[in-house]
UniProtKB/TrEMBL annotation:
InterPro entries assigned to the protein according to its UniProt record, in alphabetical order: FAD-bd_oxidored_4_C, FAD-bd_PCMH, FAD-bd_PCMH-like_sf, FAD-bd_PCMH_sub2, FAD-linked_Oxase-like_C, Oxid_FAD_bind_N, Vanillyl_alc_oxidase_C-sub2
Gene name of the encoded protein: LOC104734671
Protein's name in the database: D-lactate dehydrogenase (cytochrome)
Membership in a protein family: Belongs to the FAD-binding oxidoreductase/transferase type 4 family.
Boundaries of every FAD-binding PCMH-type domain copy: 139-316
Provenance organism: Camelina sativa (False flax)
The organism's taxonomic lineage, starting at the top: Eukaryota, Viridiplantae, Streptophyta, Embryophyta, Tracheophyta
Keywords, in A-Z order: FAD, Flavoprotein, Mitochondrion, Oxidoreductase, Transit peptide
C-alpha cells in the first residue's frame, strides 16, 4: 500500500530530530483523537455550533453572520470563553483547537472508490501526518483519513466529494513547514501529495520545467543536473515543490534569484468545488487578467490544491567561490552584509551565524571553528569575475573589523565550508537534546538589519534559554533558534516572549513577521498589526468566495477574529 512506504521514509528522515513517540494501536474507527492522552473521545468542552454563514445573493457584497467565530469588536476574553481556534490577537497557546465533526461513512466509501488502496485510517499514520515534524505546534485532533492521490483527476474528485459533505481538507507536502501548516484542528482528510512527483515536461531552450507538486527540490535538481540547469531555491532538505509554492518560501539563494513568487511561471490548482484552474500560460511575461499565480503562491492550501507547477530555471554557474570571515560583533557582520549589497556585487549567498551557533556546530560535529559571529559568502560567474568579487569583499570586511578571511574554490573544500551552515539547525538539537526549537523568521528592509539583529541579540543573550542567530543577511531575513523544554511552561513562555519581542521590533521597522516560513497557525496573531484589518477582511472575502464551505486547510493564515 502506498502509505506504508511513505510512512517508513518519513519516520526515518526525522527520527534523529525527535525522541521516539509512544503510539497507540491501530483502529479504523473515525472519532476524535487526543494524542496527548492517547484516548479517542469527544472532549467535554466541545459544543456544536450553527453553520457560520449567511451570504446575500450578490456578487459584490456579503452579509457574514458567524456564530462560531467572534466579531472583530469582541474582546479577547470572549475568544477564550468560546474555545475558538488558536491564533487570534494575543494568542500564546501552542495547542490548536477546532470544531470537530465525524467524517461520514459515505464519504469514506466514495474516497475508497476513487483511490482504491491509496487511503488509510491507520492511527499511527494519521497521528504522524497530524503532528508536524519540525514544529512545536500541535492540535487537539488529527486527520480522520489520509489519502494519496496519483493524478489531478483524483485530486479533483477528492475535493468535490469533501466539499459535498463539508469535510475539511489539509494538503500535505514534504512535512518541513514549522508554523503548524499541516495541523488538522478539525480532523477531516489529509491529502498527501507525495505520489504525484513526475517531471511532466522539460523545455531546455526555454529554461523552464513542468512538474507535479510532490517532487522535492533536491530530487528535481538531481534530474536537471545533466542538462546544465538547476532550480535556484534551497529551503530545508525534504521540502516539496508544492509545499514551497504554498508557503512562498525562499532560502539562502533568494538574495540572487528571488523567492518562490519570482520563480513560478504558472500553476494548475484544484479549487474546493473540484474545478481545475490554470493560472497562466508558459510565457515568461503576461499582462492577461488578474495574477492568479501570485494569489495561489503563499495561500498555504487555504484556496485549493496545487497539482502542477511550471518553474523558471537557471544555468548551473560556471565557477563559484565560497568565503568565510569572522567579526567581533553581529552588528559588524550585518554592516558588512549591507555594505556588500550596496557595493553592487551580485553575491548569490550572504549568510550570518552568531558565536552561539558556531559553538553549537563545534560541539555537535567535533569542529574547532573560531566561536565568533561569522559571515559566509558565495560568488558565482566566471573564474576571473568570482575572484575579483572575492577581493572586493575581502577589502570591505577589513574596513569593518573583519578577521580570518578565507575562501575556497575546490568542490570538496566548498562543500565542507557550506556544511557549517547546512548543519546549523541539527547542531542546535544536538546541543539541547529533548528540546524543541521556536524558530523566528522576521525580515526587515536591509538598512534596518544591523539595528534589529543588535537589539535582538542583546535580548537573546540576557535570556536563560539557548538561542542562536542564523540570517540570510543579504535580504534582511534572520532566524533565531530558541531552544526550550516543551514540558517546562516557564521556558515555553520565555521562548514566546523572545519571539514576540523580535516580531514587534521588526514590525516597528516596516518589516514582517515572516520572511519565508509562512503564517500557518503560529504567525496569525501578528497579521493585523502588520497588514491592517482591511487587508485581512479582503483576504477573508477571497477565501469565502473560492471556499464557501471553509473546507480548505481551516484555521490557518487568516486570524479567527476577522469578520466582514
Amino acid at each position: 500500500m502506498a502509505f506504508s512506504s511513505r510512512l517508513a521514509r518519513s519516520k526515518t528522515a526525522f527520527s534523529f530530530l525527535r525522541k521516539s513517540r509512544q503510539l497507540h494501536s491501530s483502529t479504523p474507527k473515525l472519532t476524535v483523537i487526543s494524542p496527548e492522552k492517547g484516548r479517542r473521545r469527544l472532549p467535554s468542552w466541545w459544543s456544536s455550533s450553527l453553520l457560520p454563514l449567511a451570504i446575500a445573493a450578490s456578487a459584490s457584497s456579503y452579509v457574514y453572520l458567524n456564530h462560531s467565530l467572534p466579531s472583530i469588536s469582541e474582546s479577547s476574553s470572549a475568544l477564550d470563553s468560546r474555545d475558538v481556534t488558536i491564533g487570534g490577537k494575543g494568542s500564546t497557546e501552542p495547542l490548536v483547537k477546532g470544531e470537530y465533526k465525524e467524517v461520514p461513512k459515505e464519504l469514506i466509501t466514495q474516497l475508497k472508490t476513487i483511490l482504491e488502496d491509496n487511503l488509510t485510517t491507520d492511527y499511527d499514520e494519521r497521528y504522524f501526518h497530524g503532528k508536524p515534524q519540525n514544529s512545536f505546534h500541535k492540535a487537539l485532533n488529527i486527520p480522520d483519513v489520509v489519502v494519496f492521490p496519483r493524478s489531478e483527476e483524483e485530486v479533483s474528485k477528492i475535493l468535490k466529494s469533501c466539499n459535498e459533505y463539508k469535510v475539511p481538507i489539509v494538503p500535505y507536502g514534504g512535512a518541513t513547514s514549522i508554523e503548524g501548516h499541516t495541523l488538522a484542528p478539525k480532523g477531516g482528510v489529509c491529502i498527501d501529495m507525495s505520489l504525484m512527483k513526475r517531471v511532466k515536461a522539460l523545455h531546455v531552450e526555454d529554461m523552464d520545467v513542468v512538474v507535479e507538486p510532490g517532487i522535492g527540490w533536491l530530487e528535481l535538481n538531481e534530474y536537471l543536473e545533466e542538462y546544465g540547469l538547476f532550480f535556484p531555491l534551497d529551503p530545508g532538505p525534504g521540502a516539496s515543490i508544492g509545499g514551497m509554492c504554498a508557503t512562498r518560501c525562499s532560502g539562502s539563494l533568494a538574495v540572487r534569484y528571488g523567492t518562490m513568487r519570482d520563480n513560478v511561471i504558472s500553476l494548475k490548482v484544484v479549487l474546493p468545488n473540484g474545478d481545475v484552474v490554470m493560472t497562466a500560460s508558459r510565457a515568461r511575461k503576461s499582462a492577461a487578467g488578474y495574477d492568479l499565480t501570485r494569489l495561489m503562491i503563499g495561500s498555504e492550501g487555504t484556496l485549493g490544491v496545487i497539482t502542477e507547477v511550471t518553474l523558471r530555471l537557471q544555468k548551473i554557474p560556471q565557477h563559484s567561490v565560497v568565503a568565510v570571515c569572522n567579526f567581533p560583533t553581529v552588528k559588524d557582520a550585518a554592516d558588512v552584509a549591507i555594505a556588500t549589497m550596496m557595493s553592487g556585487i551580485q553575491v548569490s549567498r550572504v549568510e550570518l551565524l552568531d558565536e552561539v551557533q558556531i559553538r553549537a556546530i563545534n560541539m555537535a560535529n567535533g569542529k574547532n571553528l573560531n566561536e565568533a559571529p561569522t559571515l559566509m559568502f558565495e560568488f558565482i560567474g566566471t573564474e576571473a569575475y568570482t575572484r575579483e568579487q572575492t577581493e572586493i569583499v575581502q577589502q570591505i570586511t577589513s574596513n569593518h573589523n573583519g578577521s580570518d578571511f578565507m575562501f575556497a574554490e575546490e568542490p570538496e573544500a566548498k562543500k565542507e565550508l557550506w556544511k557549517i551552515r547546512k548543519e546549523a539547525l541539527w547542531a542546535c538539537y544536538a546541543m539541547a537534546p529533548g528540546h524543541e526549537a521556536m524558530i523566528t523568521d522576521v525580515c526587515v528592509p536591509l538598512s534596518h538589519l544591523a539595528e534589529l539583529i543588535s537589539r535582538s541579540k542583546k535580548e537573546l543573550d540576557a535570556s536563560s534559554l539557548l538561542c542562536t542567530v542564523i540570517a540570510h543577511a543579504g535580504d534582511g531575513n534572520f532566524h533565531t533558534c530558541i531552544m526550550f523544554d516543551p514540558s517546562n511552561e516557564e521556558q515555553r513562555k520565555e521562548a514566546e516572549r523572545l519571539n514576540h519581542f523580535m516580531v514587534h521590533s521588526a514590525l516597528s521597522m516596516d518589516g514582517t513577521c515572516t520572511g519565508e516560513h509562512g503564517v500557518g497557525t503560529g504567525k496569525m496573531k501578528y497579521l493585523e498589526k502588520e497588514l491592517g484589518i482591511e487587508a485581512l477582511q479582503t483576504m477573508k472575502r477571497i477565501k469565502k468566495t473560492l471556499d464557501p464551505n471553509d473546507i480548505m486547510n481551516p484555521g490557518k493564515l487568516i486570524p479567527p477574529h476577522v469578520c466582514f
